[in-house]
């Protein structure tokens, strides 16, 4: 993430505020951030045969990039709308910010949730998270079956999550629609594993059989990452 350097002229905005500041939300010098596409921590083909390279390349370079681009454009427009107290535009932009900002948040987590089989992919969680899973769900396999069932039942596009509920101090399986990030279901929910079940995540390889994609993806789940997030957030 870098401070905004996109030309405002590129989207036709004139951002000279009546009070004299040109960029940012106030005369304090604060400037909205510009988000950027994160690099993948592995090659596009590294998750084969579970996820083919073509899917990963399209998913990262085009789908995720589009969310980032549209998020930045919406924030630029919001910056201007705020500076001129344009309430209708401020309200109108919320849906774009939620969708594209959510897409950026979710995919940034998703890439870290995956790992090649020859590295960490599919290795069981560390004892801290593993024992919490055993206590709450009986076993890792039982949890996976529960998540898979929720994924199969999810209608339309969305995400399946294994979350830590910091207030309840327990794990939780959640789903969110579209690109809603997990935080929209509660600020106490910390995403440990997020699985993208939009068709763009699997259709080129798994066609209409979403259940097979969700079943196979566990072979490349990075439980070490999930365990570290759990340990960082669980008192
Ligand atoms: Fe996606």
Short account of what is shown:
One of its GO terms (cellular component) is mitochondrial matrix. The protein has 235 residues and is an alpha+beta fold.
Structure commentary:
By secondary structure, the chain is α+β, with helices and mostly antiparallel strands. It has two domains: 8-24 and 50-112, Orthogonal Bundle (Helix Hairpins); 127-233, minor pseudopilin epsh fold, CATH 3.55.40.20. It has seven helices and five strands; from the N terminus they run ββααααβββααα. The radius of gyration is 20 Å and the shape is globular. The two termini are 29 Å apart. It catalyses: 2 superoxide + 2 H(+) = H2O2 + O2. This is Superoxide dismutase. Keywords: Manganese, Metal-binding, Mitochondrion, Oxidoreductase. It is an enzyme of class 1 (oxidoreductase).
Which characteristics define this entry?
oxidoreductase; Helix Hairpins; disordered N terminus; SOD_C_sf; globular; alpha+beta; Superoxide dismutase; binds fe (ii) ion; 45% helix; 235 residues; 12% strand; manganese; 2 domains
Output the CATH homologous superfamily of the largest domain: Iron/manganese superoxide dismutase, C-terminal domain
Judging from the principal axes of the Cα atoms, what is the shape? Answer: globular
Radius of gyration: 20 Å
Bound molecules: fe (ii) ion
Distance between the termini: 29 Å
Helix content: 40-55%
Count of structural domains = 2
Low-confidence stretches: 1-28
> What structural category characterises the helix and strand content?
alpha+beta
Q: Round the mean pLDDT to the nearest integer and report it.
A: 89
Q: Tell me the name of the CATH class of the largest domain.
A: Alpha Beta
The CATH topology of the largest domain is minor pseudopilin epsh fold
**What's the helix count?**
7
What is the string of helix and strand elements? EEHHHHEEEHHH
Count of extended strands: 5
Sheet with the most strands, sense and barrel status: 3 strands, antiparallel
With strands numbered from the N-terminus, the spatial order across the biggest sheet is: 4-3-5
- In CATH, the architecture of the largest domain is 3-Layer(bab) Sandwich
Q: Work out the strand percent.
A: 5-15%
Cofactor: Mn(2+)
Subcellular location: Mitochondrion matrix
Binding site for Mn(2+): 59, 107, 196, 200
Organism: Juglans regia (English walnut)
